[in-house]
Amino acid sequence: MAIALLAIACGKDALVGGSCRQGLTECGLQCVDLQQDRVHCGTCGHACTSGQTCSAATCATQDPSRDGGDDASVGDDAFAPDVAERDVIGDGTPDVSERDVVVSDGSLDVTERDAVVSDVSRPDVVLADGVVMDRRDDEGELSDGSTCNPPYDTPEHCGDCETRCADPTPLCGLQGTFKCVAQCEPPLVACGATCVNTSSDETNCGACSFVCPSGICQAGGCVGKGYGHEVVVGTDYADPTLAQSSAQVTLLGNAIFQTVATAVRVLAYDEFAEPATVTRIEGWLSTMATARGKSVTISKASDWTVIPQQLSVAQYQVLLVYDQALAPSDQMATTGTLWNAAMNAFAKGGGIVVVLDGGSAGRMKEFLTNSGLLEVTDETDVTGTQLNIDAPTDVVGQNLPNVLAAKKTTVAFTTTQMRDNYHVFVVTDATGMLPVVVHSVPRP
Predict the structure, then answer these.
(1) Rounded to an integer, what is the distance from CA 179 to the centroid of its chain?
(2) Residues 237, 425: Cα–Cα separation, whole Å
């Protein structure tokens, strides 16, 4: 700022500080060299005539043998610049002119277009084209009192003293040189304070905190979606003597609540079911959900035509089909045929299908066959007999006694299906041959 002000105030001919440097003489507020100034040759105001030059304080005629015109000088100093053309400050420092600017240490010489200003009070501050080039003192302290020292690797001073990182590039990273970068560079994304690849991270698969049960994440999706379940229960739960603590009720709870979800959403089909039985089962499920640390929401579907559109694992974990004791003849055969694809997709997608069959006039065996749940060729009424728990380690058979009494109405199935790794006969008749409860896991 000080030099800029001097450049404006002094102009071309000026006397600064009250005196001229050694070898110069004040003449009319100008510092001149009386030894060679043609206007002040020898003494102030003594001007040489046309064709003369001032040399050794004496006006002399130009030597014809030299080129250079009327302004040529005689002797070794003939071509020395007129000091008045480059005025000086009293302490000998070059003056700041409109043509040339010399910064305090003399290292920077630029033209007036660069608009360079040197702060006399702080020589290290240089503004070039309006940009701060250096604002540090010898200790690296900035004007705001903070410090700035190499390697300039902090968000406050990234790459240089003046660059401060902020969203969306809040971090200072080394990309050849330090520069502001995002918290995570693609394909990584930020999950909390950690950068992860959601395309392959098993604990953040496709999205933060989505954990793959299989431990395998590929292309943002879990490999192995999990098995669904199909449970066929050969009783209609119409017996009014059944209590909440009955083995049959526990078995039904095992089937419905085997999902890992704590909030269980059930789609229940009751179009042709006995209303009293439906009410009784709903009460049992509500009580069992609380006892198992879960909640249950039952949505009723009273029109068989809407089930294929509503059946989705995104909306429900369980499809519960009551025994349709009041269904017209052949109705359930048609229903099973039209539901086949939707039920199969629901189960393969991880859903749970539970169907109750008490051998009623509703002909539920035809529904089981046509829907693909269990091929049934015949049903045998086993009400009042003793039934066996053949698979106590199966999830549906857990916490049951080894035998139980068959309540009204219970049937055993004659089926072409054999026991294997995907089909478990959980409860059988007294002979151990015919299944009463079948737990199937559809192949993915």
Answers:
(1) 21
(2) 19
CA dihedral sign, ordered 57, 61, 66, 67: positive
At residue 112, the 3 state secondary structure works out as helix
Q: Which of 247 and 6 is assigned the larger pLDDT?
A: 247
Query: Helix, strand, coil: what percent of the chain each, to 5?
Result: 20, 25, 55
First vs last C-alpha separation in the chain: 80
Q: Which long-range contacts (CB under 8 A, 24 or more apart) does 294-299 make?
A: 294/257, 294/261, 294/262, 294/263, 294/264, 295/262, 295/263, 295/264, 296/256, 296/257, 296/264, 296/265, 296/266, 297/263, 297/264, 297/265, 297/266, 298/266, 298/268, 299/265, 299/266, 299/267, 299/268
The answer, yes or no, to whether the previous bond of 150 is cis (omega within 30 of 0) is no
The SS3 of residue 62 is coil
Question: Residue 307 CB: number of other CB atoms within 10 A?
Answer: 20
Each residue of 361-418: pLDDT tens digit? 878 999 999 999 999 999 999 999 999 999 999 999 999 999 999 999 999 999 999 9
* Per-residue model confidence (pLDDT) at position 153: 86
CB atoms within 10 A of CB 65: 5
Can you tell me the distance from the alpha carbon of 256 to that of 265, in angstroms, rounded to the nearest whole number? 10
Residue with tokens 């968000």: 155
CA 278 – CA 376 distance, rounded (Å): 24
